[in-house]
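Internal QA ticket QA-208
Title: Verify multi-chain structure generation after dependency bump
Assignee: T.L.

Test input:
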Amino acid sequence: MEQRTFEEFYRELYAPMTKVAYLMMGSRQLAEELVQDAFIRLYEHFDDVKNPGGFLRTVVTRLCINASNRQAMERQRVTLLDSRVYTDPDIDEMWDRLAAISADHRVVLVLRYYEDLSHREIARIIGRPTATVRTRVARALRELRRGLEC
Amino acid sequence: MLRPENDKNPLEGRLRHTLHAKAGEFDILTSESIPTPHVKSHHEVSTALATPGRRLNWVAVPLVGIVILAVVGLTVLRSDSGSHSSVSSRVSSPESYTMTASDERVLPGQTIILTVDGPDLARLSGGGDAYFEKRVGDGWRRLYKLVWYGQGDPTVQRLDATTLFLPVQATPFPVLIPAVPPGAYRITRLFDVGSSDRKTRASTRVTVKKCPLGQRPTFVEAAAVSGPNAQDVLTPLCV
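Actual output:
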């Protein structure tokens, strides 16, 4: 099979990875920065990586979790969420709730409901047991529901 | 793969819908600013490539460059093919008229002056209104009318407000920035050219800044507004 180049992966995966990071971070700028970092890491390990898409998703997810957990980043994320394009009240309300829940919960929800990944796949990405992921998704949904009912 | 029909409750469906809608929105946001991150990525990838001790992929640098140029080119083409002709704060309309704002970074409630430049300006007459727009999909959605009848203070009015047809000089034209969330917006004015039925358009971009700490953009009750359609006049402020 023909070996695909780094540039081909960059061209193919930059946009989808940035979207995932945007959903996790709520900030376009941060998403772009994190995806750039992820691609740099992919480049550094390109010869050894068997599944660049999976590698990138894992790196982007972990970078997003780390970034969200940094207080300064969190403040910036919340600020930047204010600059969203207003669309539909239902969407805006849900988006606001997503911004309010913890980064760990938001990340698993994005992987589960945007990336359509199984609990096991998510577990592999975030480096936690499958049972933990299942619990985390359930708690995240509960947290979302609680916020929406207020 | 999970599908919406597998969602166990409406909340999951709504969440999925929101995530996909916001991801689509990211396309809208990115379509205006792809060059910056890609140029940056070029720089960073190039830096990584050039770092001593790493395997140098001689194909990588030119190819990344080509990708960047292609994306930038596509972005420009895509912008040009949008529903309106003006795509940046100083891009000419088809008639080569340009419109610039006295301040491109503004706050809700701030008054700025729009200046039109181009050939034979005396042939241009503008209505007393401009449009404050935000990007939606491939086009622009009008949010408010920015009204000024040639004297007094400029006002913000709802789109459905009836404004007088009162031609005013094309330039200068003061506008009041509405109470909107921070972000990039566009102001558009339409002009009649000479005595013909032809119309032309000029647009300029502005970036609405975040209100000072603890304040939010809002419309407050106008204390004493008089003149045409006073009931439709909105007073934007950071409060």
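Spot checks passed. The mean pLDDT of chain B is 68.
Status: verified.
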